[in-house]
C-alpha cells in the first residue's frame, strides 16, 4: 500500500513538473510573439549590442550539449564501464539541450519565419551556415548512438557510433568558437584560442549539468549513487573546472600581450563597471573557486556538495558568457586607432545594455524545452544509469 | 506530300502566327514594365573620395540627404537606423581635430558577405555591397563582423517606405551607395548634397574619371587598411 502511495506521488510529481516546464515554455512563446509583433525594440538589444541575453542562453545550451557527451565518450571510446552506464543519459541531455539552444537561437532571429531560407540558401563561407550542418548532424548522430545503445541488436555498432559522436562534437564546438574567432575587427574576439577554449568550457559545463540531472534522477528513483562512482566523476569535474579556468586565463593573457587590446582587457577586468565584477565574483570566485573548494576540500565532496558545486559551475557559465558576449560588444570598436572618436552612432562610447524580460523569458523557454524533453524521456524510457558488474570495462 | 500533310503544315503555320500575334503585345508590355535590365558591370568599381579638409564639423547635410532619399527617420537612438553618420575625430597625440562622414565602405572583400549564412549580404559586380531584404533572416552576424559598424538592424515595424528603397522590420540594412540613383545615372544623395564638395563619387576603374585622377594625384587612405578589405570609400587628409 505504501508503495502505491509513493507511485501516486511520483505520478503527480511528474505531471506537476511537466506543467511547470510547459508554463515556462509558454512564457517563452509569449515573448516570441511579442518580439514578433513589436520587433526587437522591446528587447534591450540595439545597434551596438546586437546579440543579447538570448545568445547567452543559446550558447550555454549548445556548448553544454556538446560537453555532456564527454561522459558518453569516456564510456564508448575509452571503454570505462561507469561512464558507459551513463552514456544514454548523457546522449539524451545532449539532444535536449541542443533542441533548447537552437530554439532560442532561431526564435531570436529578426525573421524567424524565414528559417527555411537558411536551409535553402547556403553560403559556404559562413560559419553560421556550417553550423546548420553541424547541429543537424549532431542530432542525427546522437540519435543513432542512442539507438545502438538502447536496442540490443544494435549494440555491436555502439562503439563506432560513439567514436563518430566523439569526433563530431569536437568539430561542433570548434564551430561555436569560430563564430567569434573569425571576427578579427573586434578587440574582444578574433583569437585562435577561442575554439579550444569553448571545447574545454564545454567539458566542465556539460559534466556539471550531468551531475545535477543524475542527482535528481537518483533521488527520484530513491536510489543512492555509489560513493566510489561519485568520487570519480566529482574529481573529473574538478579537473575540467581547472582546465576551463586555465583556458579563460590564457585567453585574457593572450589579449593582454597584444598592445592594441590592452584597453579592452582593462575594461573587462578592471574598470568596466558590471563586467569586471561579474567576471571576478561571478565567474572566478563563485563559478570556479567555490566549486573547487566544495569538490576538493577535505571533508567536503559529498553528494550535496557536488550538486551545489555543479549548480555554481552552471551559474558561472552564464556569467562568463554574459561578460564575453555582451562585454565584448559593449567596448567600442577601434575604427580610428590613435583618435578620440564621437558620433551619433555610439562611436567611442561604451554601449549600454539592459536585457528585457522578453529576452529572459525566451532564454528560460529554451531551458524549459530541454527540461521537458529530459523529464518525459527519463519517464518513458530507461535512462537511469545502470551500474551492473557485468558491464565490461 | 499528301493533302493531309499539307493541311497539317498549314494549320501549324497559322497557329504559330496567331500565337505570335497574341503574345507580342504582352511581351512588349513586359519589357517596358521591367525597365532597365542592364546588369551591373564588373568593369565599373563605384567609389568615393572624401576630403576631410572640406568636411565641416557640425555640418550634417550628407546625413539629412541620405535620410530623405532612403526614407530613414533621422532618429539617433541606439535602435534607430543610421546609414551614414558624421564622426568627429581628435588626434590623441597632436590634438588635431577633423570631421568626416562614415558609411558602409563597400569593401572588395566584405566580411559581412563572408559571414552571412543565407548570402543575403552580397556584392554587386560594380562593387556595391547590398542586403537582399527578402533573404535576410535577421541573425545580425554581419553586424558583428563589420569593422566599420556600418550596419543597422530594423527594430520596429516601418511605415511610409520609399518605393525604390525596400526596407523591413527584423532585417539588417546599410548604405546602398544610393544604388537606385546610380542605376539611373545619378550621384548618391550625400555626394550631391555636400555643399563643400567633400565627397567625390565616381568609377574608380575608369582612369579618365575625376575620382580616379584625384586618387592618383593625392594621398588617400582606407579606414582600417590593415584588414586589407580594399574599400571603395577612400579618405583624404586622415
From TrEMBL, chain A:
Keyword Membrane: yes
Record-annotated membrane-spanning stretches: 12-32, 52-77, 89-107, 127-148, 160-183, 189-213, 234-258, 278-297, 304-325, 360-381
Annotated localization: Cell membrane
Keyword field contains Glycosyltransferase: no
Membrane topology classification: Multi-pass membrane protein
Alphabetically ordered keywords of this record: Cell membrane, Membrane, Transmembrane, Transmembrane helix
Main location class: membrane
InterPro entries linked to this entry: Electron_transfer_protein, NrfD-like
Cellular component GO terms held in the UniProt record: plasma membrane
PANTHER family found in the cross-reference section: PROTEIN NRFD
Protein family: Belongs to the NrfD family.
Record protein name field: Polysulphide reductase NrfD
Species this chain originates from: Sideroxydans lithotrophicus (strain ES-1)
Native organism taxonomy: Bacteria, Pseudomonadati, Pseudomonadota, Betaproteobacteria, Nitrosomonadales
From TrEMBL, chain B:
Ranges in coiled-coil conformation: none
InterPro entries attached to this UniProt entry: 4Fe4S_Fe-S-bd, 4Fe4S_Fe_S_CS, DsrO-like, ET_IronSulfur_Cluster-Binding, TAT_signal
Superkingdom, taxonomy of origin: Bacteria
Keyword Iron attributed: yes
Keywords annotated in UniProt: 4Fe-4S, Iron, Iron-sulfur, Metal-binding
Record-level Gene Ontology MF annotations: 4 iron, 4 sulfur cluster binding; metal ion binding
Domain (4Fe-4S ferredoxin-type) ranges: 46-77, 127-156
Protein name stated in the entry: 4Fe-4S ferredoxin iron-sulfur binding domain protein
Species this chain originates from: Sideroxydans lithotrophicus (strain ES-1)
Amino acid at each position: 500500500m505504501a508503495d502505491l502511495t509513493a507511485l501516486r506521488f511520483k505520478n503527480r510529481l511528474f505531471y506537476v513538473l511537466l506543467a511547470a516546464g510547459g508554463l515556462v515554455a509558454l512564457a517563452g512563446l509569449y515573448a516570441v510573439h511579442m518580439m514578433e509583433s513589436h520587433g526587437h525594440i522591446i528587447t534591450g538589444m540595439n545597434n551596438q549590442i546586437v546579440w543579447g541575453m538570448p545568445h547567452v542562453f543559446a550558447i550555454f545550451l549548445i556548448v553544454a550539449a556538446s560537453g555532456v557527451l564527454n561522459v558518453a565518450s569516456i564510456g564508448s571510446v575509452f571503454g570505462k564501464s561507469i561512464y558507459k552506464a551513463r552514456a544514454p543519459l548523457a546522449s539524451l541531455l545532449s539532444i535536449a539541450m541542443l533542441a533548447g539552444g537552437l530554439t532560442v537561437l532561431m526564435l531570436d532571429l529578426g525573421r524567424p519565419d524565414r528559417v527555411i531560407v537558411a536551409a535553402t540558401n547556403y553560403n559556404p563561407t559562413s560559419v553560421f551556415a556550417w553550423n546548420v550542418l553541424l547541429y543537424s548532424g549532431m542530432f542525427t548522430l546522437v540519435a543513432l548512438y542512442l539507438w545502438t545503445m538502447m536496442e540490443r541488436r544494435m549494440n555491436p555498432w555502439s562503439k563506432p557510433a560513439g567514436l563518430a559522436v566523439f569526433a563530431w562534437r569536437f568539430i561542433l564546438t570548434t564551430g561555436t568558437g569560430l563564430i567569434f574567432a573569425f571576427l578579427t575587427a573586434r578587440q574582444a574576439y578574433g583569437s585562435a584560442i577561442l575554439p579550444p577554449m569553448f571545447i574545454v568550457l564545454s567539458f566542465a559545463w556539460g559534466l556539471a549539468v550531468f551531475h545535477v540531472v543524475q542527482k535528481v534522477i537518483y533521488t527520484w528513483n530513491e536510489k543512492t549513487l555509489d560513493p566510489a562512482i561519485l568520487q570519480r566523476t566529482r574529481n573529473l569535474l574538478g579537473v575540467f573546472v581547472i582546465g576551463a579556468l586555465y583556458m579563460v586565463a590564457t585567453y585574457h593573457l593572450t589579449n593582454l600581450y597584444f598592445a592594441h587590446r590592452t584597453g579592452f582587457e582593462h575594461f573587462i577586468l578592471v574598470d568596466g563597471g558590471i563586467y569586471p565584477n561579474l567576471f571576478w565574483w561571478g565567474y572566478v570566485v563563485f563559478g570556479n573557486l567555490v566549486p573547487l573548494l566544495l569538490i576538493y576540500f577535505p571533508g567536503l565532496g559529498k553528494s550535496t556538495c557536488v550538486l551545489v558545486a555543479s549548480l555554481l559551475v552552471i551559474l558561472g557559465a552564464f556569467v562568463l558568457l554574459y561578460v564575453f558576449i555582451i562585454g565584448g560588444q559593449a567596448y567600442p570598436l577601434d575604427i580610428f586607432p590613435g583618435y578620440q572618436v564621437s558620433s551619433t552612432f555610439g562611436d567611442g562610447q561604451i554601449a549600454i545594455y539592459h536585457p528585457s524580460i522578453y529576452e529572459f523569458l525566451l532564454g528560460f523557454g529554451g531551458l524549459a524545452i530541454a527540461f521537458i524533453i529530459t523529464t518525459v524521456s527519463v519517464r518513458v524510457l530507461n535512462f537511469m544509469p545502470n551500474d551492473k558488474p557485468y558491464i565490461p570495462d | 506530300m499528301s493533302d493531309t500533310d499539307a493541311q497539317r503544315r498549314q494549320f501549324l503555320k497559322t497557329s504559330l502566327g496567331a500565337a505570335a500575334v497574341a503574345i507580342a503585345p504582352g511581351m512588349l508590355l513586359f519589357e517596358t514594365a521591367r525597365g532597365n535590365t542592364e546588369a551591373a558591370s564588373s568593369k565599373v568599381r563605384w567609389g568615393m573620395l572624401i576630403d576631410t579638409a572640406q568636411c565641416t564639423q557640425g555640418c550634417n547635410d550628407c546625413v539629412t540627404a541620405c535620410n530623405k532619399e532612403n526614407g530613414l527617420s533621422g532618429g539617433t537612438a541606439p535602435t534607430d537606423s543610421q546609414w551614414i553618420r558624421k564622426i568627429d575625430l581628435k588626434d590623441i597625440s597632436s590634438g588635431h581635430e577633423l570631421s568626416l562622414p562614415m558609411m558602409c565602405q563597400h569593401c572588395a572583400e566584405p566580411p559581412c558577405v563572408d559571414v552571412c549564412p543565407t548570402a543575403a549580404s552580397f556584392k554587386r559586380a560594380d562593387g556595391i555591397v547590398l542586403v537582399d531584404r527578402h533573404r535576410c533572416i535577421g541573425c545580425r552576424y554581419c553586424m558583428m563582423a563589420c569593422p566599420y559598424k556600418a550596419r543597422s538592424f530594423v527594430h520596429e515595424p516601418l511605415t511610409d517606405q520609399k518605393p525604390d528603397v525596400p526596407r523591413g522590420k527584423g532585417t539588417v540594412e546599410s548604405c546602398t551607395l544610393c544604388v537606385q540613383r546610380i542605376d539611373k545615372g545619378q550621384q548618391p544623395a550625400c555626394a550631391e548634397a555636400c555643399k563643400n564638395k567633400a565627397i567625390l563619387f565616381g568609377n574608380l576603374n575608369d582612369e579618365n574619371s575625376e575620382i580616379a585622377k584625384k586618387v592618383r594625384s593625392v594621398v588617400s587612405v582606407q579606414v582600417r587598411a590593415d584588414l586589407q578589405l580594399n574599400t571603395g570609400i577612400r579618405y583624404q587628409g586622415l
